[in-house]
Specification:
By secondary structure, the protein is mostly beta strands. Helix content is 0%, strand content 47%.
Length: 125
């Protein structure tokens, strides 16, 4: 079993940057593809970015492509989301997730076995 703990959220002005971190427990972190999802009030949870087990492949939602970067450090059991040029529409609770069955990750919520508790990101205009 994997426990995920997100950190790094907060309040930032439009155009600013934040870096989210997700620390995973256990010694099998490299066996999981990882992803970030987000959920705004009144909306469904949506895919943001995913990274393969090795970190060699990454995927992004069109809405964040070119502004967000997902990365991982398997030695530190941590996945990151660097968010630049933030917009008010990026305001949401951000969740990290781990998938054991798909080595490359995907945008499908159902493929992820473990979820963190979420961290709030608020972007003011």
């Amino acid at each position: 079993q994997v426990q995920l703990v997100e950190s790094g959220g907060g309040l930032v002005q439009a155009g600013g940057s934040l870096r989210l971190s997700c620390a995973a427990s256990g010694r099998t972190f490299s066996r999981y593809a990882m992803a970030w999802f987000r959920q705004a009030p009144g909306k469904e949870r949506e895919f943001v970015a995913a990274i393969s087990r090795s970190g060699g492949s990454t995927y992004y939602a069109d809405s964040v492509k070119g502004r967000f970067t997902i990365s991982r450090d398997n030695a530190k059991n941590t996945v990151y989301l660097q968010m630049n040029s933030l917009k008010p529409e990026d305001t949401a609770v951000y969740y990290c997730a781990a998938a054991s069955g798909n080595p490359y990750g995907s945008s499908w919520l159902s493929e992820y076995d473990y979820w963190g508790q979420g961290t709030q990101v608020t972007v003011s205009s």
